[in-house]
Amino acid sequence: MATFLDQCEALGRPVPEFVKKEFEAYLRCGILAHGFARVYCADCRYDRLVAFSCKKRGFCGSCMARRMSETAAYLVEAVVPEIPTRQWVLSVPAPLRFLIAYDNEALKVVLDAFIKTVSSWLRKKAKEDGAASQRQRAYAGAVTFIQRFGSALNLNTHMHTVFSDGVFVENASGFVTFHRTPAPTLEEIRAITEKIVRKVHRWLEKQAEEAGDAETFAEKEPLLAACYGASIRYLTALGSQAWQPLMRVFSTPPEGKSDRDERTVAGFNLHVSIPIEAHDRRGLERQLRYMGRPPLSEERLTKTADGRIVVRLKSAWGDGTTHQILQPLEFIERLVALVPPPRKNQVRYHGVFAPNASLREEIVPTPESGEPQPKTAPVEAAKPGHPTRKRLGWAKLMARVFGIDVIECPRCKSKLQVLSFITEPDVIKNILKSLGMATAPPEMARSGFKSEQTDFVYDYDYAQ
After folding, report:
1. Is 124 left (phi over 0), alpha (psi -120 to 50) or beta?
2. Are 151 and 143 in contact (CB under 8 A)?
3. Which DSSP symbol is given to 261?
4. What residue segments make up the domains of the chain, in order of their start?
5. Which of 85, 113, 342, 390 is the most buried (most CB within 10 A)?
């Protein structure tokens, strides 16, 4: 990391502060020398130290896995009622991935076009099937996870959305009922994609007069522009090999024909998965965890003897690529591109699942009952002092996901109690020393920077 920082400083293009903080926090995460909590068993006097976490949302596997589990549990218990749901995934062409990676307005336009088009199709199908009349109001609900990564740790901003597999219909008396819609055909998926493309292209045409956005971003954040562009195209951004292809491992191309091309319109691809049935709450939670998963998987990362990082793809690409091999600095470049800009929500709510939706109190699970089940009662105003769901603690999340009770004493099976949170450096050092543990964090590698590059390159041709 020190080499990467020195390289950027030498070029007069320092790493943005929010990216630097992400790396600094990650390098402190889980290290006892930076602070910890003491837990204790009153029955057998067993003592344990639990290191602090960084709580970042870029690439820390443990912290993002905790957030993934907590979000999935919250959605299942307090947002998504017991109805069938279906996952829709929208991918966009490479130039648009670059734009929505930093431009929140562009991301909102693409997401709104996606959500509104699919919701409109759900309402239309419900009325065609007779579930709702032309005068009745029908509402869909959705939750979107904004993912920034592909299986090769490349920058690939796309949307994973779980939609209600149907609509909520409100009759004249104010009663709400849920009506399921049939699965979309391949022709309907393509028609929906075409509508999304038209909406996004109309907005892009309006912005054509202000075409300086990309140049402005490159001028303000040349490092991010270089890392974003190189990551999208599987190239190196810095060093003597700047803008050269990354090393790949090939095998026999996969057999079988995919319908991906038939679902792709102007680079936009819409994928619709099989539904999760209403009673399958565990299946829904597994799917939500997948949608909010971290970008790094230790199972697919290996380190060679000479220090290079091998990334195994989830599935072989059409040309037979199965692995990518990254130099350490190339690996850091990829991580830089994956860090989301600050104050940009990665999980968004739509329709009746939105916080301010008028029917939300009648549709989402209530804290009192604890049972995710849609209601058919008239809409009522929220009661003052209405209880809210408390966040699940770390120990409960671990038990829920992995079946491990981390607050259970390994000796006598009693419950461990938190004694204190240790943050003072001298106290930390004395406790660790008394236990015969390392009192200092691991020493960071020193910079090995050698000037090889005179400037950044971020003028790239996606047509290549």
Report:
1. alpha
2. no
3. G
4. 1-56+394-459, 61-239+256-297+332-392
5. 85
Give me the pLDDT at residue 10, please: 81
Kindly state the DSSP code that residue 346 receives in the 8-state scheme: S
Per the CB < 8 A criterion, the answer to whether 168 and 178 are in contact is yes
pLDDT in the model for residue 403? 67
Residue with tokens 């001298």: 426
* The pairing of beta strand 85-91 with beta strand 47-51: unpaired
Quick: pLDDT tens for 197-241: 999 999 998 887 665 555 688 888 999 999 999 999 999 998 778
Confidence category of residue 131, pLDDT binned at 50, 70, 90: confident
Q: Which 3 state secondary structure label does DSSP give 50?
A: strand
pTM of the model: 0.86
Q: 169 is written with which tokens?
A: 């219909």
> What angle, rounded to 10 degrees, do the helices at 94-102 and 222-232 form?
150
- The residues, ordered by sequence, that sit 6+ positions from 148 with a Cβ below 8 Å of its Cβ are 101, 155, 156, 157, 295, 337, 338, 340
pLDDT tens digit sequence for 313-324: 998 888 899 999
Which residues on neighbouring strands pair with residue 8, listed in sequence order? none
Tokens of 29: 């995460």
Asked if residue 63 has pLDDT above 70, the reply is yes
